[in-house]
Amino acid sequence: MTEQPRETASPRGAGAAPAAVPALAVRDVTHTFGARKALDDVSLDVPAGSFTALLGPNGAGKTTLFSLVTRLYDNRSGAIHVLGYDVRRQPAAALSQLGVVFQARTLDLELSVLDNLLYHATLHGIGFGAGRRRAMELLAQAGLADRARDKVRNLSGGQMRRVEIVRALIHRPRLLLLDEPTVGLDIASRAALVAQVRELVAQEAIGVLWATHIIEEIQPGDRIVVLHRGRVRARGSYEEMLAQTGTDELGAAFLKLVGDEAEAA
Ligand SMILES: Nc1ncnc2c1ncn2[C@@H]1O[C@H](COP(=O)(O)OP(=O)(O)OP(=O)(O)O)[C@@H](O)[C@H]1O
């Protein structure tokens, strides 16, 4: 039997479209490391089918938030829902809807691209044949079908990142988290990666939370959450961010929102 969401941050009314359930809903989450507050009463949504940028400088709390959503850390305050599933009370259902690309690279360099993907598919209970079909379909979409048999070690940094995205999608999640995925990539590889993820949002209506401090990765139409020193400083559409700050360019808006504190950090 499929587990049903027990509670959602945006409860569905009778007849409301399923899209009303956010891919991710974070409410009033605080997290401390000893005396240091890494997240302070954080609330944010990632609507289904949206590209939401989590924009914050170093130390803002982005990775800590990802660690809470993925259950690496237990959220002892507030609530986190993935597709309406509470990650504390319904972790299996919540995590089945979730794909993650962590900041550190985690592919096995000595295995082939395909074997890395099949290993991950098996962990999700996907049979060999179905896993292989899904892997090849996603590799083709990512322009990497001809590299399936290559050892990961022989790929470029950008190609490895694209394989990590493919891996995160093997089990057909509805929410994809990416933690500063373009770190270390050249401009062309970064553009290819952003394009791959934007295509997913457009074609498959996946909700994406893209953590970054690189303004150029964000474009008009995106949703933005500005996180600084553990607190949400602003949230809304790209256009709302400019209007809120009275600027005509996102870099200027960001500086206004985090102000001199970012420079002093
Ligand atoms: N395991 C930990 N123990 C103690 N403090 C931590 C730990 N992890 C993170 N912190 C602190 O929590 C705050 C938020 O860190 P976090 O890594 O979440 O930020 P970030 O936005 O991901 O930064 P970056 O862009 O540098 O990766 C920082 O002050 C950091 O030093």
From TrEMBL:
<dbReference type="InterPro" id="IPR027417">
    <property type="entry name" value="P-loop_NTPase"/>
</dbReference>
<dbReference type="InterPro" id="IPR003439">
    <property type="entry name" value="ABC_transporter-like_ATP-bd"/>
</dbReference>
<keyword id="KW-0813">Transport</keyword>
<keyword id="KW-0067">ATP-binding</keyword>
<dbReference type="InterPro" id="IPR050763">
    <property type="entry name" value="ABC_transporter_ATP-binding"/>
</dbReference>
<feature type="domain" description="ABC transporter">
    <location>
        <begin position="24"/>
        <end position="254"/>
    </location>
</feature>
<dbReference type="InterPro" id="IPR003593">
    <property type="entry name" value="AAA+_ATPase"/>
</dbReference>
<dbReference type="GO" id="GO:0005524">
    <property type="term" value="F:ATP binding"/>
</dbReference>
<dbReference type="Pfam" id="PF00005">
    <property type="entry name" value="ABC_tran"/>
</dbReference>
<dbReference type="InterPro" id="IPR022467">
    <property type="entry name" value="ABC_transprt_ATP-bd_su_PQQ"/>
</dbReference>
<dbReference type="InterPro" id="IPR017871">
    <property type="entry name" value="ABC_transporter-like_CS"/>
</dbReference>
<protein>
    <submittedName>
        <fullName>ATP-binding cassette domain-containing protein</fullName>
    </submittedName>
</protein>
<keyword id="KW-0536">Nodulation</keyword>
<comment type="similarity">
    <text>Belongs to the ABC transporter superfamily.</text>
</comment>
<keyword id="KW-0547">Nucleotide-binding</keyword>
